[in-house]
Amino acid sequence: MALSWYSITHVTLYTKPQEKVINMASPTDIRKGRVMDYQGAPHLVLEMQHRTQGRQAGFVQTTLRNLQSGSTTTTKFRSTDNVEFMHTTTQKLEFSYKDTEGHHFMDLETYEDTVLLSEVIGEDDYFLVEGNTYDILLVDGDAIRLELPASVEAKVIEAPEALRGDTAGNVLKPVTISSGITIQVPLFIKKDDVIKISTSDRSYLGRVN
Length: 209
Hints:
Oligomer: single chain
Order of helices and strands: HEEEEEEEEEHEEEEEEE
CATH topology of the largest domain: SH3 type barrels
CATH class of the largest domain: Mainly Beta
Shape: elongated
């Protein structure tokens, strides 16, 4: 008996419970920026190069970063090896607070709490401001790491007064921002100013207000 249109539509809309997504592939598919399942942990591909050894089969030389521990390793995959790529997404979550459990981020739509361990956050903690949203990398639905923007804004909580005679345009002074780190800024920056800071080298980029 032929299926009715209703039956076909009903079957099409049926979805199975979410499962771990693993894409088996050849080492020739390795690309910078992809995430692999290597030795049971997610690894980000930092660098890769195709190499050959005379008449022998070629291989792919890679530099991988363990997204759980932060460690970096160099390894090679021969053309006969199989590699597993993991499904990744990025979600914007609001930083709520930190405690002994870790750093807590909240989904503003579902109010779901996501926790990243302090060891995973590392020194990026200096750029976290409560109430600001940040990109969180998810691998197979699990939060793995914080992805900082190129710059962040922070409030100056301590700033020494400029001394008389300090008029040169390139003279800088140290100030303390709300996270507790010290930044070198121009002399005109005062306490309670909001400044923009580079997350790559902690350099001053400008005053916001």
